[in-house]
Specification:
Blueprint lengths: L9 E6 L5 H13 L3 E6 L9 H7 L16 H8 L2 E7 L1 H8 L6 H7 L5 E5 L3 H5 L1 H12 L3 E2 L3 E4 L5 E5 L3 H12 L9 E6 L4 E4 L2 E3 L6 H12 L3 E6 L11 E5 L3 H12 L4 E4 L6 E3 L18 E3 L3 H7 L6 E8 L3 H12 L3 E6 L11 E7 L3 E9 H19 L9 E2 L1
Parallel strand pairs: 1-2, 1-3, 3-4, 4-5, 8-11, 8-13, 11-12, 13-16, 16-17
Antiparallel strand pairs: 6-7, 9-10, 14-15, 17-18, 18-19, 19-20
Helix pairs in contact: 1-8, 3-5, 4-7, 9-13
The structure holds cytidine-5'-triphosphate.
């Protein structure tokens, strides 16, 4: 996550004493993998569930669990003052009560009193405890003080129970933590509108025309932009829940017409527009009001073109706005993409040969060529997250060029 020359952001990872503590190991590992310096702090009760050695081995410095027995005489102030973020996973009912009450009798709560850094708590407990008014009131108090909360989720709990109370998925916790750290990134203060997924054009109340787009690339772009500090609006057809993140708003749409309306609203405010969605080119001219039945005979569905959303956005472009299009092609991809770049009037075209192995629909990886007016950048088979960052790197360069700042797009010249 840190770029060359910038120090790694520092996260204090607090672990309190609940069964979800075993998942904090994964949170620790993923944060370190993302380039974060992790200082693990375990409460005495956490040690009943997990060992300090594990966190010392996976974290960036030895795990600490005591106010009095560590090398430093005042470990909490040093930890609190140097943190860029404190994450507590899991946060038990007892921990939340002590934190909300401002108690500082053990290292983790003392560190929280001694920090000015943003704090993310990830509650985990049995459903009955989670729903208890005292737990909810403590959380309300913490939220009012600016503490961010992720989870809990619904699912299997300890002792065979099922319900709300399960610790949020480690990947989600890490993603939110990275977004909170991203407040210092190179898209800070920028508003980015991203469309994602395939539109669905209704035929009748139960059927529609659509395409194979999974929306994964658009969603990866949204996460990458959040990590770079942007304010992100994700206009998506994807139905699965998107984890709540600071600076993210999600607009759900189905049809090309709905996507066009949502993007038009955003285009008046956005500094960057990314049309990663696979918009249907045609839709049924008439939508049957009742389900078409076999007895009605084989239907003759007459199609009409949908609006070209991207061309509409380019036509109403605000001064300085950067507009990115995607081109899903099969064969002669770059040549066809360059023609589309010229035709659509975008600043950047991400060309995607969806017939290449490991690329395009449904895959977690992609192979793209990024076209700008002056150059071409190939991104070999990579995760959609890496592709998203390569695209945003070009966007940052274009924005800087328009602001008259250094850092023109880094695509190599043709
Ligand atoms: N796009 C759009 N509205 C449409 C069709 C496409 O905004 N009705 C956008 C897509 O989101 C993408 C870009 O235009 O960013 C190119 O989409 P693509 O499907 O590759 O191109 P088309 O314009 O549909 O041309 P063709 O299907 O003939 O290749």
């Amino acid at each position: 996550m840190p770029t060359a020359g910038t120090p790694a952001p520092r996260v204090v990872l607090g672990v309190s004493g609940g069964i979800g503590a075993y998942k904090a190991v994964e949170v620790c590992r993923r944060l370190v993998e993302a380039g974060v310096h992790v200082a693990p702090v375990l409460t005495p009760d956490a040690l009943r569930f997990v060992g300090k050695t594990t966190f010392s081995a996976l974290g960036s410095e030895p795990a600490q669990s005591s106010l009095f027995e560590e090398a430093s005489p005042i470990p909490h102030t040093k930890l609190g003052q140097s943190a860029d973020l404190v994450v507590v996973a899991p946060a038990t009912a007892d921990f939340l009560a002590r934190y909300a009450a401002g108690m500082g009798g053990e290292l983790l709560t003392a560190t929280l009193l001694a920090t000015r850094a943003p704090v993310l708590v990830c509650p985990a407990m049995h459903t009955e405890m989670w729903e208890h008014p005292s737990v909810q009131e403590n959380l309300d108090t913490l939220r009012r003080r600016g503490v961010s909360v992720v989870g809990p989720e619904e699912g299997a709990l300890a002792a065979g129970d099922v319900g709300v109370g399960r610790l949020a998925d480690p990947a989600t916790i890490v993603s939110v933590a990275l977004v909170m750290l991203g407040g210092r990134g190179d898209l800070q203060g920028r508003r980015v509108a991203i469309s994602a997924g395939g539109t669905r054009e209704p035929i009748d109340p139960v059927r529609h025309l659509s395409n194979r787009s999974s929306g994964k690339q658009g969603h990866a772009l949204a996460t990458a932009a959040l990590r770079r500090g942007a304010e992100v609006v994700l206009v998506t057809t994807v139905g699965r829940p998107v984890a709540a993140q600071p600076r993210l708003s999600v607009v759900r749409v189905d049809t090309a017409a709905e996507m066009e309306a949502a993007m038009a609203v955003e285009s008046d405010k956005a500094d960057v527009i990314v049309m990663a969605a696979a918009v249907a080119d045609f839709r049924p001219r008439q939508v049957a009001t009742h389900k078409l039945a076999k007895d009605d005979g084989v239907p003759e569905i007459v199609l009409e073109p949908t609006p070209d959303i991207l061309c509409g956005l380019v036509a109403r472009r605000r001064p300085g706005q950067v507009i990115v299009g995607f081109a899903a092609e099969t064969g002669d991809a770059v040549e066809r993409g360059r023609r589309k770049f010229d035709r659509k009037g975008v600043d950047l075209m991400v060309v995607n040969d969806v017939s290449a192995p490991g690329a395009g629909f449904d895959h977690d990886t992609n192979v793209v060529t990024i076209l700008t007016s002056g150059g071409t950048r190939e991104v070999p088979l990579s995760s959609k997250e890496v592709v998203a960052d390569a695209v945003l790197e070009q966007v940052v360069g274009l924005l800087a060029g328009r602001d008259g700042r250094a850092g023109a797009p880094r695509a190599e010249e043709d």
